[in-house]
Design goal:
The structure holds two protein chains of two kinds.
Chain A (H helix, E strand, L loop, with lengths): L25 E2 L2 E2 L8 H14 L3 H15 L5 E3 L1 H4 L6 E6 L9 H14 L4 E6 L3 H13 L2 E7 H6 L1 H9 L3 E5 L6 H15 L3 E3 L10 H9 L1 H14 L5 E6 L3 H7 L9 E11 L4 E3 L1 H4 L1 E5 L2 E5 L24 H8 L3 E7 H15 L5 H20 L10 E6 L7 H8 L35 H4 L1
Parallel strand pairs in A: 4-15, 5-6, 5-8, 6-7, 9-10, 9-15, 10-14
Antiparallel strand pairs in A: 1-2, 3-4, 10-11, 12-13
Helix pairs in contact in A: 2-4, 4-5, 4-9, 5-7, 9-11, 10-11, 14-15
Chain B lengths: L2 H11 L4 E7 L5 H13 L4 E5 L10 H12 L4 H14 L2 E5 L2 H7 L1 H11 L3 E3 L9 H9 L3 E3 L1 E2 L5 H10 L4 E4 L13 H14 L4 E4 L5 H8 L4 E4 L1 H8 L3 H15 L9
Parallel strand pairs in B: 1-2, 1-9, 2-3, 3-4, 4-5, 6-7, 7-8, 8-9
Helix pairs in contact in B: 2-4, 2-12, 3-11, 4-6, 6-7, 8-9, 10-12, 11-12
Classes of the chains: A alpha/beta, B alpha/beta.
Bound molecules: pyridoxal-5'-phosphate (PLP).
Pyridoxal-5'-phosphate (PLP) binds next to helix 5, strand 9, helix 11 and helix 15 of chain A.
């Protein structure tokens, strides 16, 4: 381990808990609680139980044991030099949340909230899910701890993530397809809240990201920050220095907050969130909430959101079900407004190009969500090297990317995008040429073609 | 004095509860919905809750969602709502806007208060805004002399009942059952318990009960212990089943008779 004599105080080993939110859940002007009064008692109960639990040594020991023995933590950090050849010469390290049990970072949060559910004596959990990863993680924790579990999932998402629907059912969860509104994650959250307000006596809502009313944004952050706490130590240990930038995809923002939090006090480390740019922010068909939205109130908190002049939520679009959400967690809005983190859009085509590259260069099939972060690293690496900065003393810039999940669930979507499989022939989409070689730069140079039926998939 | 408290007080002076009816603006279209609100008043509603369509109505059940969705898609907004406010005032009832918070925040809180007051609106009911988050609205409603109605629920602690009623003006909305809007076969006894607990801290502030009332008998039952009976889903159902203004007027007549008799006394 490096010592503080070699590495200045910024590189201390145990980064503190952020001073935000305040006692009522506000990150500056963002966050808070915009919910019916009927839920306030349950939110107060959760807050109180969580505040007691998070400093309770017995809980911390139980949580740590589960993370080690069940999830498989710590997750490794992998350097990906062949992929990094496409990042302008930057070095790229992946934090491997894809190797967690259940295949993504979502399990980190769910184990914490499931323990909390038992602590407050409730027998039933409900959850919303987009890509299905949070639903699978919740169903898993419920099976492990003997809780009954209902998962709300937009009907549109049950189709594009059919594998995860089957997984949840195998694990004993009830999956309810939501047919209201846009039939995606935002509507699944509405239905889950309606269930909660009706059954709050018996039921705990296991929220899947750092959005929603207080205490969810702070609590989910605390459960996810293990990603960055581990990664910071791992990078310091292997490199003797901090990364120049930390990148993560942002749907609601939990994997991003999870890896950012440890680095927030490290002023020299750029924090970059990659939002789903869909067909392009200019087309209006995207899910780039901070890039293309404005502050407002949705799902219980004030934050950036995609909305029209009447304050109606605008439906988002992304090839990635897990990023297809018109809101974002309030802490990201705050980090954006104070200038501590930056948020950039990545289009479907850019993400799929990065997806193919990682598969072919490193033998790792990423979740399409995580592929947005990889695409961000390709671009940022090229920018930093072109500007001749980012690195230290002539070393190449060092990028740490959160690989939030694995791509098993996305095989169908990717096969369609790339024209693979034995279905009728389709033109391959951006990221592969007709010989199925990964292409580099086709998207950024405008040569890429979109997958033929990718639009109807997304 | 508060226009809502004044009207509900007048009903009380007649020995009855007030009838508070809800309809959203814009289903099936703006003009038809406003005509239905006028019919609601003609049938005997004292107060009309004028609903602002919203894309994510987390407190509403399937019936209200079904009516609101097309209005959202048609782009119905606060401008149309203010027209409905004027029409309801002209018909002789007290108009109050019922809105989830984001449409108001997007319009501008101060601008909303000024425009609502100018249109003759009494104030607003805000189902997903708790007083703790309402600083800007408390100030704007004060400045423009508007009523503000917050909700209490069976799960509210005594301390919250006290602080929430203290922030209300006009009346306090007792959301009597835990759950979303929709009609229910029976009035739960949780409603009366909540009203008793709320009255204990509400002083003179009227307590109105909503969530689940659908017919004259249930209205009479609630009228026995509350200052006002709030009916939403049953009205919206008249719009969805196509009986429109006539159906709404007939329902108002039935409910208005209900709030004038006491439970157990046959009509
Ligand atoms: C692998 C993966 N990454 C990222 C996300 C997006 O969520 P968040 O922004 O909360 O990390 C999801 C959501 O389903 C996911 O499954």
């Amino acid at each position: 381990m490096t010592t503080s004599a070699v590495h200045p105080p910024e590189e201390r080993l145990e980064p503190a808990r952020p001073t935000w939110p305040d006692a009522t859940g506000h990150f500056g002007v963002f966050g808070g609680r915009f919910v019916p009064e009927a839920l306030i008692a349950a939110l107060d109960e959760l807050t109180e139980a969580y505040e007691a639990m998070r400093v309770d040594p017995a809980f911390l020991a139980e949580f740590a044991a589960l993370q080690r023995d069940y999830t498989g933590r710590p997750s490794p950090v992998t350097e990906v030099p062949r992929f990094a050849e496409h990042c302008g010469g930057a070095r790229v390290l992946l934090k491997r949340e894809d190797l967690n049990h259940t295949g993504s970072h979502k399990i980190n949060n769910v184990l914490g909230q499931a323990l909390l559910t038992k602590r407050i004596g409730k027998q039933r959990v409900i959850a919303e899910t987009g890509a299905g990863q949070h639903g699978v993680a919740t169903a898993t924790a419920a099976a492990l701890m003997g809780l009954s579990c209902t998962v709300y999932m937009g009907e549109e998402d049950t189709r594009r993530q059919a594998l995860n629907v089957a997984r949840m059912r195998l694990l004993g969860a009830e999956v309810i397809p939501v047919t209201t509104g846009s039939r995606t994650l935002k509507d699944a959250i509405n239905e889950a809240f309606r269930d909660w307000v009706t059954n709050v006596e018996t039921t705990n809502y296991v929220f899947g990201t750092v959005a929603g009313p207080h205490p969810f944004p702070a609590m989910v952050r605390d459960f996810q920050r293990v990603i960055g706490d581990e990664a910071r130590g791992q990078v310091l240990e292997r490199e003797g220095r901090l990364p120049d930038a930390v990148l993560a995809c942002v749907g609601g923002g939990s994997n991003a907050i999870g890896i950012f939090t440890a680095f927030v006090p490290d002023d020299g480390v750029r924090l970059v969130g990659l939002e789903a740019g869909g067909d392009g922010v200019g087309t209006g068909r995207h899910a780039a909430t901070i890039t293309g939205g404005a502050p407002g109130v949705l799902h219980g908190a004030r934050s950036y959101l995609l909305q029209d002049d009447n304050g109606q939520t605008i439906e988002s679009h992304s090839i990635s079900a897990g990023l297809d959400y018109p809101g974002v967690g309030p802490e990201h809005s705050y980090l954006h407004d104070i200038g501590r983190a930056e948020y950039r859009p990545v289009t479907d085509a850019e993400a799929m190009e990065a997806f193919a590259l990682l598969c072919r260069t490193e033998g790792i099939i990423p979740a399409i969500e995580s592929a947005h972060a990889l695409a961000g690293a390709m671009r940022l690496g090229q920018e930093l090297v072109a500007q001749g900065d980012g690195g230290r003393g002539g070393e190449p810039p060092l990028l740490l990317v959160n690989l939030s999940g694995r791509g098993d669930k996305d095989v169908e979507t990717a096969s369609r995008w790339f024209g693979l499989g034995d279905r009728e022939h389709v033109e391959p989409g951006a990221g592969m040429d007709t010989d199925q070689q990964p292409t580099d730069g086709a998207v950024t140079s405008g040569d890429a073609v979109r997958g033929q039926d990718a639009g109807s998939q997304a | 004095m508060s226009p809502l408290a004044h009207r509900i007080g007048a009903a009380r002076a007649e020995g009855r509860a007030a009838l508070v009816g809800y309809l959203p603006v814009g289903y099936p279209d703006v003009n038809t919905s406003i005509a239905a609100m006028t019919a609601m008043v003609e049938g005997g509603a004292d107060v009309v809750e004028i609903g602002v369509p919203y894309s994510d109505p987390g407190m509403d059940g399937p019936v209200i969602q079904q009516a609101v969705e097309p209005a959202v898609r048609a782009g119905v907004g606060l401008r149309d709502v203010l027209r409905a406010v004027e029409a309801v005032a002209a018909a002789g009832a007290v108009p109050a806007v019922m809105s989830y918070w984001n449409p108001i925040e997007r319009y501008g809180v101060e601008r909303f208060a000024a425009d609502l007051a100018a249109a003759g609106g009494a104030g607003a009911i805000t189902p997903d805004l708790i007083p703790d988050e309402a600083g800007e609205w408390l100030a704007a409603s004060e400045e423009h002399g508007l009523d503000r109605v917050f909700l209490v629920a069976p799960s509210s602690t005594d301390a919250r009942l006290a602080s929430t009623t203290a922030a209300c003006r006009g009346f306090v909305y007792a959301a009597s059952t835990m759950g979303v809007t929709g009609t229910r076969a029976t009035v739960s006894d949780a409603a009366e318990r909540l009203v008793v607990r709320t009255r204990a801290v509400a002083g003179d502030l009227p307590v109105c009960v909503g969530l689940g009332v659908s017919d004259g008998d249930q209205a009479a039952e609630v009228a026995a212990f509350a200052d006002g009976v709030i009916v939403g889903t049953a009205y919206v159902r008249r719009m969805l089943d196509g009986t429109g203004a006539d159906g709404v007027r007939a329902l108002s007549e039935e409910l208005a008779a209900g709030v004038r008799r006491r439970a157990g006394v046959p009509s």
